[in-house]
Every structure is written in structure tokens, then in C-alpha cells.
Amino acid sequence: MADSLSSGGRDVEQVVAALDGFRIELPSWGFANTGTRFGKFVQGGAATTIEEKFADAAQVNALTGASPTVALHVLWDLPKGKADVPEIKRLEQRFGVSAGSINPNLFQDAEYKYGSIANPSAEIRGNALAHLLDSVEIGRELGSKDVSLWIADGSNYPGTQSVRRRIEWMEAVLKSTHDALGEDQRMLIEYKPFEPAFYHTDIADWGMALELTRRCGPKAKVLVDTGHHYQGTNIEQIVAWLLHLDALGGFHFNDRKYADDDLTLGSIDPYQVFRIFHEILSASVVERANVAFMIDQSHNLKGKVEAMVQTVVTAQELYAKAALVDRAKLAQLQQECRLVEAEECFRSAFWTDVRPMVKEWRLARGLAADPLQELAASGYVEKITSERSAKNAASVSSYA
Ligand code: PSV
Ligand code: MN
Fold first, then answer.
1. Considering only Cβ atoms within 10 Å of each terminal Cβ, which end of the chain, N or C, has fewer?
2. In angstroms, rounded to a whole number, what is the distance separating the alpha carbons of residues 173 and 190?
3. 13-40 burial code (b ≥16 CB/10 A, e <16)
4. Whose CA is nearest to atom 10 of ligand 1?
């Protein structure tokens, strides 16, 4: 089968090279129970412990061959902080998937009601910095590259906070965090226009995130969460700019119809994901190596493991499509402003049904031909549902 792959012509070669290099990180929180602000729909098979999250992530990786790391949220996955690192290392050994990005949590504690790193209280900003420094230490001990920050800070009413002073406070904390990073560590700064704050958010867009990374230093990069934009924003243009400025650290992928909906990648607008992947594949190999792909989804209606497999498979397919763009030809057509031909060159890659090629790649790499079907046939979801449903049912009362 490997032979048939290598002799498959340009398209197959492009797809094989793209898929061999494609990795997308799973979020630990995508396997646990979550809900909306109106309620939780508890799933019998949801992971109730960090061990179960690793087990589920390993299952997704075994089926797709593309997700060997799992993002950890410090408060949810390492509640004892650094003291939990040995347990994470044991789980890495046991399940064969590694800790990925480390996500500090500066949005849940009651003291962060008026902000964390932009809180008017120096004491609360100090506590936030201490958590960030702990997160850097956890990342260093686990050998993970990225500390990934999302800052929920903001305000709900005009005139109630000084935007200017909050910028200065944030800069100071972020700079101290940056300076504590080890040689191989990076700090990613994520932006989001609104929610939970609804008047102003302290890091609301890529311009603000970019400027903060520049003030911090070279180990700070911008993280683009695809759900964190206003309707109609040209995300691939932001991606192109960040690549140009050597400022793109990575992505949180999900899809949206209205706001930060956290729907399955490509479920609403697969063409947008294709366009983003095209920008990535047009970048140099060095630039591309610095861009981390991560999923940020936690499904409460779809089965969690199924949704995650579906997400990774969709990402692989869209990446394969983007790899089919004949970039040399496209550059020529763009140069000559042959608009319709350029657009057709681009679109024809998107419309190519890559699934047979992706299937062939899976078989050649010893993976399941159809990961979703294989998951269904394996009985894994039934098994975890019967093992975990009592624990999940008991947790319903704690959500009330
Ligand atoms: C916030 O909406 C966010 O996108 C951040 O990345 C958080 O870490 C994640 O969601 C947690 O749900
Ligand atoms: Mn995110």
C-alpha cells in the first residue's frame, strides 16, 4: 500500500506529505461534562478524571494518528498544581499521549470577578501572576512547549474601569510571565471580542494581542481561536499578517454560526478552514513549524469521543484539500490578475473529494480506514458509558 501511495502522482504525494506532517492537539476539557450557561447535559460516558481524559485522548489518537498531545487546563486537570505533575507523567507513559499546551485558569476564581491580570487590586494581580508562574513551571516540568493564555478580563459598563491603566497592569504581569519562560517554552496570547465581559474586553482582538506579545518578547506569540471574531471577519487575512510578522503561535479550532459557539470544526464553514490551511501551507517550512494546531471544543449534545474523532478527521480532510492547491500555478495567475482562473484553481482543490486518498493514507499508515466507523465497531463508547455513568449520574446533583 505504501508503494501505491508513492506512485500515485502529484495529488497523492501532496496529500501524503501533508497528512504525515499534520498534528492537532486535543483539549482535555473536550472529554469532560460541560454545558451552556443555562444548564448541563451530563453524558454517561464523559470523562470524570484526568485518567479518563487521557484514555479518551489516546483512543482518538489511535484512530486518527494525528493527535498525540492533549492540552491541559491547570485548575481542572492539575488541581494541586505542580504536585500533580508526576501523575500526569505516569498517564503519559500509560496511555502514550503527552501533555500539550498548559492553560492557566484566570477566570473561575471568585477573586477574579473584576479581572485577573488587569484587576485594579495589586494583590489580586499578584495572585494571578503567581498562577501564571506556576503554570510556566508545570510546562517546564512536563516538557511542554506552550503556556496558552486566555484572559477573560473586561468590564460590563462604560466608565466603570480605566482601560488605559488596565493595559499597563496587564503588560507588567505578562512581561514577568514571559521572562520566567524556559529556553524552549513559549507563551501564547489568545484574544476574544466579548464574553464573559460585554462592554470591553482587555484583550479583544489580534491587534491588542500582537502588541502585548511585542512588549513581552520573542517567546510570546498570538493564538487565534477561530470562534473569537465578529461575523464576517477575514480570519485568513489575520493569519497571513501574523505569519508575515512571525507572530503566529497557534490556533484553537472550532466553528461558529453566531459567536463563540464552539461547534465542530468545519461544520458551518469548511471553506474558511480550507482558506486558513492554505495560508499555513503557503508559509515556509520554518514558519509552519511554529504554528500549533489545537482544538477548542467541548460538546454537550454530540457524544464527546465521536465528536472529537469527527473533528480530527474533518481537519485532516480540509488540510489535505488545501495541500492540493497548485500554489505555483496560482501565484502565476494571481500575478497576471487572471481572476476567474485563479479562483477556479483555488476552488477546484477545495471541491476535490480527498476522502479516497485520505483513506489510502490511513491504511498505508496502519490506521483505521474509517475512524468513526471503527470507533463504533470497537464498542469503546459503550464501554466507557457503562464504566462511568454511575459517577456521571452522581455528579448531576453537584451541577444543580
Ligand atoms: C475561551 O472562550 C476559550 O476559548 C479559552 O481558550 C479557554 O481556555 C477555553 O475557551 C476553555 O473553555
Ligand atoms: Mn480558545
1. C
2. 15
3. ebbbebbeebbbbbbbbbbbbbeeeeeb
4. 296
pTM of the model: 0.97
Proximal ligand: closest to the CA of 201: 1
Look at residue 38 and tell me whether its pLDDT is greater than 90: no
Q: Is 328 exposed, middle or buried (0-12, 13-18, 19+ CB in 10 A)?
A: exposed
| Alpha carbons 105 and 163: distance in angstroms, whole number | 22
Query: Rounded to the nearest 10 degrees, how much is the dihedral formed by the CA atoms of 308, 309, 311, 317?
Result: 170
| Residue 305 pLDDT > 70 | yes
Residues within a 6 A CB radius of ligand 1: 29, 103, 150, 190, 192, 225, 252, 260, 296
Q: In 228-299, where does DSSP find H-type helix?
A: 235-244, 270-282, 285-289
pLDDT reading at 108 higher than 50: yes
Contact 45, 339 (CB under 8 A): no
Of the listed ligands, the closest to the CA of 73 is 1
Phi, psi dihedral angles at 310 (to 5 degrees): -60, -40
In sequence order, which residues have a C-beta less than 8 Å from that of residue 398 and are 6 or more positions away? none
Q: Is 353 left (phi over 0), alpha (psi -120 to 50) or beta?
A: beta
What percentage of the chain's residues is helix, strand, coil (to nearest 5)? 55, 15, 35
3-state secondary structure of 232: coil
Nearest CA to ligand 1 atom 3: 150
Query: In this structure, which ligand is nearest to the CA of 30?
Result: 1
The whole-angstrom separation of Cα 227 and Cα 162 is 27
What pLDDT was estimated at residue 31? 98
What is the set of domains in the chain, with CATH numbers?
22-303 (3.20.20.150)
Q: Is 47 helix (H, G, I), strand (E, B) or coil?
A: strand
pLDDT attached to residue 35: 82
The C-alpha cell at 275 is 482558506
Which residue's CA lies nearest to atom 9 of ligand 1? Answer: 296
Ligand 1 atom with least separation from CA of 298: 12
- The three cell numbers of residue 98 are 503527552
3-state secondary structure of 312: helix
Q: What is the DSSP string of 2-30?
A: HHHHHTSHHHHHHHHHHHHH---BEEGGG
| Nearest CA owner, ligand 1 atom 5 | 150
